[in-house]
Amino acid sequence: MSTQQNPKGKLVAIIAMMFMFAMIAFVTNLAAPIGTIWGYQFQGNSFLGMLGNMMNFLAYLFMGIPAGKLLLKIGYKKTTLWALAIGAIGMAVQYASSRWGGEVHVAESTVTVMEKINGAEYPVERTMHIALNFIIYLLGAFIAGFCVCMLNTVVNPMLNLLGGGGNKGMQLLQTGGTLNSLSATLTPFLVGVLIGSLTPRTQLSDVDSLLWIAIGIFIAAFIIIYFVAIPEPQDVGKQKNVKFTHSPWNFRHTVLGVIGIFIYVGIEIGIPGTLMFYLSDQKSSGAGILGDASTIAGAVVAIYWLLMLVGRFVSTFISGKVSTRNQLLAVSGVGVILVVMAIFSSKESQIGVPNIIYDPVEKTTSTLSAAGMPQNEIQNFIKNPSEDALTPYTATQTIQTKNGPVNKTVVLESAKEPSEVVSALVNAPGVPIAAVFLVLCGLCTSVMWGGIFNLAVEGLGKYTAQASGIFMMMVVGGGVIPLCQQLIADAVGYMTSYWLMVGCLGYIFFYGLWGCINVNKDIPVEDTDDKKVLEEQILNAE
Questions:
Q1: Burial, 344: exposed, middle or buried (Cβ in 10 Å; 0-12, 13-18, 19+)?
Q2: pLDDT tens across 223-278, in order?
Q3: For a FRET experiment, which of 97, 204, 225, 519 has its CA 20 to 30 Å from that of 321?
Q4: Whole-angstrom Cα distance, residue 316 to residue 345?
Q5: pTM, rounded to two decimals
Q6: Do residues 184 and 308 lie in contact, with contact meaning Cβ atoms separated by under 8 Å?
Q7: Is the pLDDT of residue 538 over 60?
Q8: How confident is the model at residue 8 (pLDDT cuts 50, 70, 90)?
């Protein structure tokens, strides 16, 4: 049926789709912070910690095309309801992993990790257990991935069609993207409030309330959407048995756009993902940040997502005047420049971390309070920091390293050595200027999804729903490309790995310059066009 409807119904439909956009980011951004809990349990193994994120994106590979077919068979509203139900199930399975299976070990291995002791690094052997509850968690993350894939399949073509395509469609996509970025920015902060400080003793059960919140949101959204009239962009009943003469794969600009979506999602996840590892690494191979490097890294990376929100919000207002193609060319070109500047910048060139992001005094106070130091002594320590003042509030551990036993003195209730506490307070923490350039890339990636999608489906007509499913399948790039970048980083260094991002951004620029041109306008995209072609064939045959 037609997309035409009364203005009130159209507004409700747009609001519903905007709400779904926010839900997509909420579910997707749960995987990484929850993954840090598993990383601590697996002796700092970030690969296993990020498997939940990978399973989330892997679901797109299996559900992308079926989701598009599902739209043609049962319509947009029923597809949305199924997605919400699946999302609730996925969160429930993850909750189950926090309650059952922790005592059943399915795999065990001995790993060697480099541990910092008294300012030096020593090889230490640790036993790593993989329990059944981790397998259950991965299953839950995979199920949740099906949910966000189906939601993505619905909201993108719906917003584009409700806006009438072109620049107006782009405006709605960018508005939805703004809410998506807002949710993506707020979710890590919400997770941080609920789980507190991460330690090796942190368990998934510590975030049970977060999983229940997610389940509640899905159930509430299901009820709301059930009573919302969502217009169908085409007659679902008549489309059930229709066999199209062509497919989205027959359009060159769509095929190149599919590749662009795969690469774009890899860029969006890869830039902040590798930056997180780089800033958190306090060894010579990393940024070497003083103080709580993980806290600083998380705050810096959050700014990347915040800038994506800003970029999408600004694009919402300029899309009516600046074409989608010009926006894509501008942001991809600037993105290449920013990443190259980050690669060639010196690690010694640093910018101070504002207190609003990381306050050394507040962090030191929290650490010493947990260790049992009285408030007056804490105030004296802050005025005149010294390792001797910390001696009554420390404990000595004997670490069995491959080089023999080594004594390690740490502040009570923390893993920090006294020298680290003093250094973090005396020397103001800073981050390499490269981090600033990479964070600014959030402004560039903010408009790429809507831009590529808008250009790739332009002129597809009845093939739009099928194309949307293909695009969703290619979101798996968010798991594949960052993994490849991490392999490069392990081999030749974090900053060198960003040359992969330069190549990816170069492809986006190529797509905006030449690849997005529709050279297949002769292919019928409406049912009336098919009738005209058939009549011409009959006349020619006569």
A1: exposed
A2: 877 887 766 655 455 555 556 667 788 889 999 999 999 999 999 988 988 888 78
A3: 519
A4: 33
A5: 0.77
A6: yes
A7: no
A8: low
Token pair, residue 64, equals 């992308």
Residues facing residue 122 across a β-bridge: 115
Are the C-beta atoms of 368 and 411 separated by less than 8 Å? yes
Beta carbons of 204 and 97 less than 8 angstroms apart: yes
Rounded distance between C-alpha atoms, residue 388 and residue 383, angstroms: 14
- Give residue 118's region: left, alpha or beta (phi > 0; psi -120 to 50): left
Q: What whole-number distance in Å separates Cα of residue 279 and Cα of residue 301?
A: 9
User: What pairs with residue 409 in β-bridges?
Assistant: 396
The pLDDT score that the predictor gives to residue 233 is 57
What is residue 232's DSSP assignment?
P
Please tell me the chain's helix, strand, coil percentages from 3-state DSSP, rounded to the nearest 5: 70, 10, 20
Q: Is 190 helix (H, G, I), strand (E, B) or coil?
A: helix
CA-CA distance, 458 to 517, in Å (whole number)? 10
Angle at 31 between CA 29 and CA 37, to 5 degrees: 125
Q: Which of left, alpha, beta for 179 (phi over 0: left; psi -120 to 50: alpha)?
A: alpha
Q: What is the mean pLDDT of residues 141-155?
A: 87
Q: Are 177 and 450 in contact (CB under 8 A)?
A: yes
Cβ-based burial of 384 (10 A; exposed 0-12, middle 13-18, buried ≥19): exposed
Q: Is the pLDDT of residue 11 over 50?
A: yes
Is 100 in a helix, a strand, or coil?
Answer: coil
- Count of residues for the chain? 542
Q: Is residue 527 very low, low, confident or very high in pLDDT (cuts 50, 70, 90)?
A: low
What CA–CA distance (Å, rounded) separates 373 from 170? 57
Please write the tens of the pLDDT for every residue from 41-59: 776 566 777 778 788 888 8
